[in-house]
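Hey, sorry to bother you again with one of my protein questions. I've been puzzling over a protein and I'd love to understand its fold better. Take your time with it, there's no hurry, and the full record follows here:
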Amino acid sequence: MFACAGCGTELTAPVSRVALPVHADYGAWEELHPPLMEPATYAVAPRSTGSARRPWDEAEAEPAAGQGAYPPEHAVSFAPRGPVVIAPGDSRGMVLIPGKCAGYCMGIDGREGPNLACAGCGRAVATRVDDCGLWQAVWLEPDAVRRAPSGLPAVPVPAWDELDLEAYAVPPVELDGSWSRRWQAAVPVALAHLVVACEGRPVELPGPLAELVGATAGCLPAGPPVLTSCLAGPGTPVPRTGADVLLVPLHPVTGEPWRPPYGAAPPAVPLDIGVWAHLVLPGETSPLPASGTLPEGVLRDDYPVPLRPRHAFWPHHRAFADTLERLRGIRGPEPPDTPWVVGGEGGWGSGGGGGELG
């Protein structure tokens, strides 16, 4: 659990560390979101968050790089690095700070700095966020809290073959017919890693992703595919025919990508396990109705009707460009001029405007 660094008041329920979700920074504007973290878990963000931000033209390049930021970011956060995030329901011993609960329209967004104080000593220890476009969370200030043993036995980290993939799978379509916000963030994040792994060469996506993404102008390099990619992971071995790049799941606890258990393997591109598990698990085939006797594996055309999206897949407008810019080897004090690195004209990462591209 976490306790106040000043007086020792317990601030959380017992929690176990897991990987930071890839969609943590990417929500949907004008929408309320569920909690970012599962109950009894916590994660540590590698970069600083919070309201201690300065415009890029006022921030010096070297200190900004120390925060993991490079141009052309709009603003740089100089809050302490390594904030700890928990589900709001796991918070204990904290009270809201009057006058620091501002938000955009539907809740609190933390724009005025930490808004939760330790109930024991009054020290500012965390920030609660739950406004539109933000995943509900409590972010603990890393220099205001300390870890303390809960007295409970440690939760063992499951091996890959011990994971229940069906429990982790996330469907791409919500009940209201909108695309999953997690998919809208995870897919472009993986595609950014794919661009780097392929060194800018055109690549053919595996069937499920190719059908989902469709035309990827401005994201993946244009031209006839010269490389192939495939899904691989626990229960889905590397195909004998070979592939140039593997799309593999990220472990939900360690955050490490899956690796083949033996021999040399092609480069691995990490993909959110919720998206990966849905793509590889056997599920629904064609949602189209059929006349006469239904062949084996074809869905019935009566109730319940399979969930279908209302529109084409819309990736999050920042996830691809942000990820590509932060990957080591292409992101630095002087960003490269390669068009596909910055999104290209009409691409998902192209500048100007905050809308999403269908």
